[in-house]
């Protein structure tokens, strides 16, 4: 388990009584409320825990400290990029933003959503994690049907934000690739000509048009959606 995810679970365990893992649907099912609610996600205790999780993101955003180090600068030079697809569009995000790629999990909506991009929460190894729509944040057309065949499996990206990891559903993950610095420099230079939201530029890569995302702008939008 990654360090970021371990900290997330540790923080939640200290602040939230995860009764759904002990006596609820993921535990021994001895909770007397299950008879009425059928599933923990229908219970006010679960909703309150999800709200507390989002409050923690807000607190972390208020306490945000910008840190610049030589190690981070060196990491930028690796040009390691996770390449994924939303609908018909291929996108790239610096790998340092990525905690892990996981199978699709059920997304549970909240009674009072804080933004259009906030889809709800997902249960990742027993921890509640906020789930966001990059389709909404990037201003993509939600009506565009995903491309691919029966072998194409949707995935979830767990991305590191200021308040902790967030889950992002995607239609396909190609993998992690080392993109040539020459291409990235070209994309950066062309970004001023692009009107696409949170975009550094677009490059031709493996016979695809790959839209490279600006991590600072995108993660700032993620934080705003959670606070």
Précis, in short:
The protein has two domains: 3-62, no CATH class; 70-226, CheA-289, Domain 4 (OB fold (Dihydrolipoamide Acetyltransferase, E2P), Beta Barrel), CATH 2.40.50. It has helices at residues 3-15, 19-22, 34-37, 44-62, 70-76, 134-137, 181-190, 215-226, and strands at residues 80-86, 89-94, 98-102, 107-108, 118-124, 127-132, 155-161, 164-170, 172-178, 199-205, 208-213. It has 227 residues and is an alpha+beta fold.
What does this structure look like?
The longest helix is centred in the first third of the chain and has 19 residues, at 44-62. The strands form three sheets. Strands 9-1-2-11-10 form a five-stranded mixed β-sheet. 32% of the residues lie in helices and 30% in strands. It has two domains: 3-62, no CATH class; 70-226, CheA-289, Domain 4 (OB fold (Dihydrolipoamide Acetyltransferase, E2P), Beta Barrel), CATH 2.40.50.180. The protein is of the alpha+beta class. One of its GO terms (cellular component) is cytosol. It is found in: Cytoplasm.
Distance from first to last alpha carbon: 27 Å
CATH topology label of the largest domain? OB fold (Dihydrolipoamide Acetyltransferase, E2P)
Secondary-structure content class = alpha+beta
Strand content: 25-35%
Mean pLDDT: 78
**Radius of gyration based on Cα positions:** 19 Å
Pfam family, one: CheW
Subcellular location: Cytoplasm
InterPro entries: CheW, CheW-like_dom_sf, CheW-lke_dom
Protein name: Chemotaxis protein CheW
């Amino acid at each position: 388990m990654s360090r970021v995810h371990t900290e997330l679970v540790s923080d939640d365990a200290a602040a939230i009584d995860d009764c759904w893992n002990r006596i609820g649907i993921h535990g021994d099912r001895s909770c007397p409320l299950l008879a009425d609610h059928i599933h923990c996600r229908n219970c006010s205790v679960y909703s309150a825990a999800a709200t507390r999780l989002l409050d923690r993101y807000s607190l972390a955003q208020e306490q945000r400290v910008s840190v610049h180090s030589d190690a981070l600068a060196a990491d930028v030079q690796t040009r390691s990029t996770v390449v994924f697809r939303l609908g018909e569009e291929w996108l790239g995000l610096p790998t340092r933003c990525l905690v892990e790629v996981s199978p699709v999990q059920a997304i549970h909506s909240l009674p009072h959503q804080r933004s259009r991009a906030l889809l709800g929460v997902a249960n990742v190894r027993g921890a509640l994690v906020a789930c966001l729509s990059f389709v909404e944040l990037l201003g993509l057309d939600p009506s565009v049907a995903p491309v691919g065949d029966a072998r194409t499996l949707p995935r979830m990206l767990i991305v590191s934000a200021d308040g902790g990891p967030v889950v992002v559903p995607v239609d396909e993950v190609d993998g992690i690739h080392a993109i040539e610095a020459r291409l990235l420099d070209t994309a950066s230079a062309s970004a001023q000509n692009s009107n696409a939201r949170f975009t550094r530029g677009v490059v031709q890569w493996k016979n695809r048009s790959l839209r490279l995302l600006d991590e600072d702008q995108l993660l700032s939008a993620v934080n705003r959606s959670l606070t």
